[in-house]
Amino acid sequence: MKQQLRKVIFILVCGCLASCASPKLAPTKTLAPLPEGEMAIVPDSVTLKETPKLSTYFSDKKLVQLFEIALASNPDIQIAKERIAIANSYLVRSKKVRLPNLDLELSASGTRFGDYTMEGVGNFDTNLSSNINERQIINTNLTPNYFVGLQSAWEADIWGKLKKLSEAARNRYLASREGERLVRATLFTDIAVLYFELIALDKKLTIYEENYALQQKAYEIIAAQRSVGKATELAVQQFQAQSKNLETEISLLKIEVLEVENALNALLGKYTYRIDRGNTLMTVNNEDSKAKEQYVRLLFNRPDVLQHYFELQASQADAKAAKAAFLPRLVLGSRFGYNAFSAETLFLPGSLTYQLLGGLFTPLLNRSQLKLEFNVASKEQEIAFWGYQKSVIQAYTELQTLLGKREIYQKTLALKAQEVGHLKRAVEVANDLYITGYANYMELINTQKNKLTADLDLLHFELDTTLNTIILFKALGGSLETSQ
Q1: pLDDT tens digits, one per residue of 412-453
Q2: Is the alpha carbon torsion for 466, 467, 468, 472 positive or negative?
Q3: Which helix or strand (DSSP H or E) is residue 144 part of?
Q4: pLDDT of 457-480, one tens digit each?
């Protein structure tokens, strides 16, 4: 007997030693350093207090109001919120797994033991014993078994596997929150772009109407001179054609306004909503005083970068949990309650029973499956790292592009504003010269065309500057907290 026990112990020890030979984790990779120097990869080094704020970055209250409406009714926002709730449920569940479970058990069964089984023979002999009373006689035709009580089981997290799984769930919850921030940022950017495109269309419509008024004024001059023989019919027809062209452009602009308003309604989650808007584009953002290095530091607070960072942390925790799965598991349990083979004796003091147990479980035949799961977790960790690296590269290059475009736009705007001023004066001079006979009607037409083109170009660069400023706010991980 002792020799057999030694063999069992020897087998268990060998199994435990074999299970301890778990695969090695891949070395942790670090981000490639940015051109400005080595940057900390831990986003906790950047706080939300350093990021630009919606209320200070954008002074247009009507735009902020539209965003608040979208937060309440946009379907993508509502979906993102539900995903956060799901991730939070997984997080809570991962914490509960580390605690002992406690179940209330109510069970009843009936068994007919054969005459040639140990239980059947044992029950028959027990009924013949003089040491039992009437309540202890066993029904051998159908032996009942009743139990009412509590049972509990707990896995001791001696290797930290359950802790790592909980850590992975926590990081996925944080990633889901950053995913919701990303949805909010994308939504606000789209709303702001369409909002300022509407303002630009309003301004474009004003430009065409003003140029149409100038065209009409010039036409009146030509028509008057035609009546006294100082101008030809060709000049009159040319100016009429120009007027019709401007009227056509004004009508087409109204179609564009309708399309943009409907697109904006879709983002707001509304079928129809009157878009109340201002009349000013953004030409300078409120964060221009920041140094370039401060901008780069803010990259690590962007929701897309943070989302990949937390996914990387979750994948690393998963890999460590998969490694710990090769090690022995210690499970402790207990059972306490009333157990009897007759209903009338179930709740008697003599039916009270309890059990304490403990077990050490080590994987043997399923090690190949555990290796596959570990390999998958390791590859997921690699994918998560390269996703994080990619997000940082994209964030950095996007920021460099936006900052470079901002400098060029500021110079271009100044030049275009001067050009528009010169051409406005040129139109006035051309009208005077035409009246006095020092300019022909083609020079007058060309001067007005050039002014219209310059006005539209200036508006185009103002809109591009505005859109660049909007995207820069998103690129810096701007805080989208509103009054809600």
Answers
A1: 888 888 888 888 888 888 877 767 777 777 777 788 888 888
A2: positive
A3: strand 143-156
A4: 889 989 999 999 999 888 888 877
List where CATH 1.20.1600.10 sits in the chain: 21-98+159-327+367-475
Q: Where in the chain is the domain with CATH 2.20.200.10?
A: 102-156+329-361
CATH code linked to domain 102-156+329-361 = 2.20.200.10
Other beta carbons within 10 Å of 440: 14
Average pLDDT on 278-302 reads 70
Q: Does residue 463 come out as left (phi exceeding 0), alpha (psi in the -120 to 50 range) or beta?
A: alpha
| Eight-class DSSP state of 30 | -
Query: Looking at residues 52-72, what average pLDDT do you find?
Result: 87
Q: Name the CATH code of domain 21-98+159-327+367-475 (choices 3.40.50.150, 3.40.50.300, 1.20.1600.10, 1.10.3980.10).
A: 1.20.1600.10
Number of DSSP helices (H) and strands (E) in the chain, helices first: 11, 4
Residue 452: count other Cβ atoms within 10 Å of its Cβ: 22
Q: For residue 143, what are the β-bridge partners?
A: 111
- Evaluate whether 436 touches 196 at the Cβ level (below 8 Å): no
State CA 96 to chain mean position distance. Answer: 26
Q: What pLDDT score was predicted for residue 45?
A: 47
> DSSP string of 268-283?
HT-SS------S----
Strand partners, 102: 152
Work out the angle at residue 481's Cα, subtended by the Cα atoms of residues 308 and 51, and round it to the nearest 5 degrees. 60
Segments of 284-407 assigned E as strands: 329-340, 352-361
Query: What pLDDT score does 484 carry?
Result: 44
- Dist. CA 183–CA 177, nearest whole Å: 10
- For 93-117, b/e burial (b = at least 16 CB within 10 A) is ebeeeeeeeeeeeeeeeeeebeeee
Predicted TM-score (pTM) of this structure: 0.78
In whole angstroms, how far apart are CA 272 and each of 175, 263, 278, 427? Answer: 34, 10, 19, 42
For residue 9, what pLDDT is reported? 53
3-state secondary structure of 229: coil
CB 180 within 8 A of CB 428: no
Segment 41-65 mean pLDDT: 72
Residue 142's region, left for phi above 0, alpha for psi from -120 to 50, else beta, is beta
